[in-house]
Automatic annotation (TrEMBL):
<dbReference type="GO" id="GO:0140825">
    <property type="term" value="F:lactoperoxidase activity"/>
</dbReference>
<keyword id="KW-0408">Iron</keyword>
<dbReference type="GO" id="GO:0009505">
    <property type="term" value="C:plant-type cell wall"/>
</dbReference>
<comment type="similarity">
    <text>Belongs to the peroxidase family. Classical plant (class III) peroxidase subfamily.</text>
</comment>
<feature type="domain" description="Plant heme peroxidase family profile">
    <location>
        <begin position="45"/>
        <end position="350"/>
    </location>
</feature>
<feature type="disulfide bond">
    <location>
        <begin position="223"/>
        <end position="255"/>
    </location>
</feature>
<feature type="disulfide bond">
    <location>
        <begin position="88"/>
        <end position="93"/>
    </location>
</feature>
<dbReference type="GO" id="GO:0006950">
    <property type="term" value="P:response to stress"/>
</dbReference>
<feature type="binding site">
    <location>
        <position position="92"/>
    </location>
    <ligand>
        <name>Ca(2+) 1</name>
    </ligand>
</feature>
<feature type="binding site" description="axial binding residue">
    <location>
        <position position="216"/>
    </location>
    <ligand>
        <name>heme b</name>
    </ligand>
</feature>
<dbReference type="GO" id="GO:0004601">
    <property type="term" value="F:peroxidase activity"/>
</dbReference>
<dbReference type="GO" id="GO:0005576">
    <property type="term" value="C:extracellular region"/>
</dbReference>
<keyword id="KW-0479">Metal-binding</keyword>
<feature type="disulfide bond">
    <location>
        <begin position="55"/>
        <end position="138"/>
    </location>
</feature>
<feature type="binding site">
    <location>
        <position position="186"/>
    </location>
    <ligand>
        <name>substrate</name>
    </ligand>
</feature>
<feature type="active site" description="Proton acceptor">
    <location>
        <position position="86"/>
    </location>
</feature>
<keyword id="KW-0575">Peroxidase</keyword>
Length: 350
């Protein structure tokens, strides 16, 4: 998901200038197994009512934290959504992204991989706060993985996006290794071929790729993720011709070729960067995509019709996005003590 993300965000020249000279601090497989034989007890499927008896107030508890975070630090929304994408694409949706590298360990955890170093602390802080509240009411019951899935949904809705039910029942993974990250996440310069192959390896379709990329309707990216497009696209020493000249000028003002501030970011969506809508797709059609991997979706004949379709119909995008999030949220789900655990502190492996 070019995500990626997802992890991850006005239409006049004045807006371009305003957005890109602002300095921000760093922003920044399989479906559940169905056993047909009666010889083994089939694993329980993910369910909307998984905690109906054990912790019926879990959604309200998490919601009280996400709503407060959204008011106090709005960047918590794209930060948490991106956190969920990065978690699910590496080892499945098991909260392994939240595990901290143990002091003295030679094995780095996922969060310390190069591709995850730009993940904003607001996302981690949100889950830490939500987990503490849930533990105070339902100790040892709700997994960090489920809390992350619920929080991501909450922020999508708070930012103006669709509300969809979150199926629960994930356990937390026992393994978190930085070495597993690079080949399992999309990158800013990924080609459409590479994206399709990656998403397919997760059981996701071309439509899922285009739909989930729509999460870039909110959020920001650091200059290092797109600077080559501005000055040396594919080794040409020229800018990417698929960038609107106004956007190119604004980006160059914020992101010089050398000596720039590593903390400067630009919004994925230059028109409505803080609103979860479908403007991302219209932007791609106007050469306003921030990343090469984003703009490529409009340039490739396999994905272009989907970009055009979602750009015209927000309701269609919201419906497809809700379905794709449920599908992604089922990737590599861990169940039972043999494969998972219920961590009391999300950053510490039991």
């Amino acid at each position: 998901m070019p995500i990626l993300s997802p992890t991850s965000s006005s239409s006049s020249s004045l807006v371009f200038t305003c957005f890109f000279i602002i300095l921000f601090v760093t922003i920044n497989s399989s479906n559940p197994v169905t056993i047909t034989t009666k010889a083994k007890r089939p694993p329980r499927q993910l369910s909307v009512n998984y905690y109906a008896k054990s912790c019926p107030q879990v959604e309200q508890l998490v919601g009280s934290i996400t709503s407060q975070q959204f008011k106090e630090t709005p960047v918590s929304a794209p930060a948490t959504i991106r956190l969920f994408f990065h978690d699910c694409f590496v080892e499945g949706c098991d909260a392994s992204i939240l595990i901290a590298t143990q002091p003295g360990s030679k094995i780095l955890a996922e969060k310390d991989a190069a591709d995850n170093r730009d993940l904003r602390t607001e996302g981690f802080d949100t889950i830490t706060r939500a987990k503490a509240l849930v533990e105070s009411k339902c100790p040892g019951i709700v997994s960090c993985a489920d809390i992350l899935a619920i929080a991501a949904r909450d922020f999508i809705h708070l930012a103006g996006g669709p509300y969809y039910v979150v199926k629960k029942g994930r356990w937390d993974g026992k393994m978190s290794m930085a070495s597993r990250v690079p080949n399992n996440l999309p990158h800013a310069n990924s080609t459409v071929d590479q994206l399709i192959k990656l998403f397919s390896s997760k059981g996701l379709t071309i439509q899922d790729l285009v739909v989930l990329s729509g999460a870039h309707t909110i959020g920001f990216a650091h200059c290092k993720n797109f600077v080559d497009r501005l000055y040396n696209y594919k080794g040409t020493k020229q800018a990417d011709p698929a960038i609107d000249p106004r956007l190119l000028k604004a980006l160059k003002m914020s992101c010089p070729q050398v000596g720039g501030n590593d903390d400067i970011v630009a919004p994925f969506d230059v028109t409505t960067p803080f609103v979860f809508d479908h403007a991302y797709y219209a932007n791609l059609q106007s050469k306003l995509g921030l990343l090469a991997s984003d703009e490529g979706l409009f340039l490739d004949p396999r994905t272009k019709p989907l970009v055009q379709s979602f750009g015209l119909d927000k309701a269609k995008f919201f419906l497809a996005f809700s379905a794709a999030m449920e599908k992604m949220g089922s990737i590599g789900v861990k169940r039972g003590r043999r494969h998972g655990e219920k961590r009391k502190v999300c950053s510490i492996h039991m």
